[in-house]
Amino acid sequence: MLFSLIQTLGDLPLVFVDTETTGASAEFGHRVIEVGCVRVEGGKITAEYQQLIDPQRRIGPGVSALTGITQEMVAGRPTFGQQLPAMLEVMRGHDGAVVVGHNVRFDLSFLQREFRRAGMEMMNVLGEVPVLDTVRIARRRLGRGGNGLQVLSRRLGIEPVTAHRALADARTTHRVLERLLEPAGGWGCCLCDAIREQGGPMGLLPRTQRESLLPLELEEALELRRTVVMEYLDADGRRTQRTIQPLHLRRSNGELLLVAHCHLRNAQRTFKVERIVRMVREDEASTQEGELFLQ
Question: Facing residues of 239 across strands?
Fold first, then answer.
């Protein structure tokens, strides 16, 4: 399907995509454990898809604490390649679709690698479709920081029913896009105007390697260098709360580590990213439950 920039979003098929993963980085070999897709035509949901996936590797403890998805839940489920035809029925349909996600570059980085493991190239399968990112639109409208899906949706008057499951988050993203684009005409907004609202065009693949492929809350914590409250699983699996100032990421022995100044110890400490359950800005910690971390 050829996408005209002057067509309205209401005249175009859109597919809202979300993934849950074993960890924070596809580059480190982490895998998809759940996919959720919501296909929207004429501003209305016409099809949905959700599937737990056997990642054929261990799920990080922080991810299980966050999503509720355990190793036992994915054991014996289809692999990504086995479920791919059913997913494509919704994601691609007959004519393709504009791909939409919240911090969508993170999800697409995982999907690209999963497509390749299945012997396919994502671009060849889905085509050169336009991509919209609700995080980018929210940043231009509301500023940087505090744009995690659960926090942002509540700022927009949307109460998500479930958080951090793929289909539920894809549904919430649909409502968030609708609310964010209301000043630009909602579903009557032209594709070119929606692209302008996010600051320019996006494709399925990043234009440069400098584009962040991290979970949103980790990316913003590092970028803004603000003090955050972090819920963390210790070596015994107990949840602890730490007030930290993130400094940078480090890689060691195949693991992604967060180096931060720990206020409790008044010293620099290193935390395993896979053990982080949630992270919230310090100025928000006393007024809300907190924004859960890996999305």
Answer: 233
Q: Tokens 């002057």 — which residue?
A: 6
Q: What's the half-sphere exposure (Cβ side, CA atoms, 13 Å) at 126?
A: 24
In 3-state terms the chain splits into helix, strand, coil percentages (rounded to 5) of 35, 25, 35
What distance in Å separates the CA atoms of residue 148 and residue 103, rounded to the nearest whole number?
A: 9
Tokens of 191: 């594709």
pLDDT tens readout for residues 67-80: 999 999 999 999 99
Q: How far apart are CA 273 and CA 256, in angstroms?
A: 6
Q: Residue 216 CB: number of other CB atoms within 10 A?
A: 22
Q: Is the dihedral of CA 255, 238, 166, 55 positive or negative?
A: positive
CB half-sphere exposure, 16, CA atoms < 13 A: 25
CA distance 274 to 41: 37
- Size of the chain in residues: 295
Instruction: Please compute, for residue 249, the number of CA atoms within 13 A of its CA located in the half-sphere on the CB side.
Output: 18
Q: 9-213 maps to which CATH number?
A: 3.30.420.10
Contact between residue 241 and residue 253 where contact means Cβ atoms under 8 Å apart: no
Q: Residues 147-179: pLDDT tens digits? A: 889 889 999 999 877 778 999 999 999 999 999
Strand order from edge to edge, sheet including 276-281: 267-272, 255-262, 239-252, 228-233, 276-281
Ramachandran area for residue 119 (φ above 0: left; ψ -120 to 50: alpha; else beta): left
Taking domain 218-285, whether its CATH number is 1.10.3470 is answered by no
First to last CA, the chain: 30
Give residue limits of the domains in the chain.
9-213, 218-285
